[in-house]
Amino acid sequence: MDIKPLRYFIAIARTESFTKAAQQLGVAQPAVSMAIKKLEADLGLTLIHRADRNIGLTDEGKKLLTHAEKIIQATDDALLEMGELKGLSQGEVRVGIPSMLGSYYFPPILMAFRHKYPTITLKVIEGGTWQLQKMLENGELDLSVIVAETLPDGLETQALIREEMLVTIATDHPFSQLDKIPPDAFFDEELVMFKEGYFHRRIVDKLAKTCKKTPKIGFETNLIPLIKSITQQGFGISTLLAMVIEEDDELITRSFDPPIWLDLGIAWRKDSYLSKANRAFLEFVNEHGRYKRRA
Fold it and tell me: Nearest-CA neighbor of 142 among 107, 105, 97, 112?
């Protein structure tokens, strides 16, 4: 059985579009349509609902998707493992990194890794931890930084860093007179927050639910310089990791009461082959990163 149609089928299932699937795969749309029609004819089943522009999987298609993903993953793993019998002279690492760590924690690690392994290609995908975790589970990433407490059964993780989540305020904000900030007081202020799907936002939303408070979000952005600027000018308060705050930012940070710690790890799929390039990256991060155990 030719597995290429299965790749096409998976792309259609994920994008819910023949056009988007073709663009993602880098092939002409008619080729995708013909491959799926042939796959359906070979199986004697209808796999995709084609109602107007709405694309969805039939019950048979949903069952095939589960098997198709396993077949493609196993095939890719086998080809990768066979190719690596030649040694670590080449390879690719696809790693997902949240924007805050991508901007302030990983740059020196990535540059040092590239210097040590110049023939390995690094593909860094930036996004929210939830989005990156889904991409990892779907096989679109080899490794990803995730919040350790949300680790699903299908993933393994290596401890990366432990950082405190700090209330971030302008220098003249009334909170500057306090040593610690109670969550209730935090949620009484207008907030500058990351968009949904980012680990900071998920922690804040979880905290608000625990406090039975509705966050007053005045600004939503994933741009850290913009978060800093809005907070500096007193239009809201935010939460950031200590690594993000620089001396000339004209910002003050305070701990929550009680403090909130984030345990971040770098994860991979349990059931997939971890290439030599990815293992080298994991070992390098473990050696050059810093995991701070603080209470």
Answer: 97
The identity of residue 249, as a single letter, is D
* pLDDT attached to residue 277: 87
Nearest Cα to Cα of residue 262 among 282, 285, 242: 242
Give the homologous superfamily in CATH for domain 92-161+264-289: Periplasmic binding protein-like II (3.40.190.10)
Q: 174: exposed, middle or buried (C-beta count within 10 Å: 0-12, 13-18, 19+)?
A: exposed
pLDDT at 273: 79
pLDDT tens digits, 170-200 = 999 999 999 999 999 999 999 999 888 788 8
For the segment 31-42, the average pLDDT, to the nearest whole number, is 90
CATH topology of domain 162-262: D-Maltodextrin-Binding Protein; domain 2 (3.40.190)
β-partners of residue 170 are: 251
- pLDDT at 28 exceeding the cut of 70: yes
54-93 pLDDT, tens digit per residue, is 788 999 999 999 999 889 888 887 877 776 655 655 678 9
CATH 2.60.120.10 is right for the domain spanning 3-86: no
Residue type, 50: R
Same fold, 92-161+264-289 and 162-262: yes
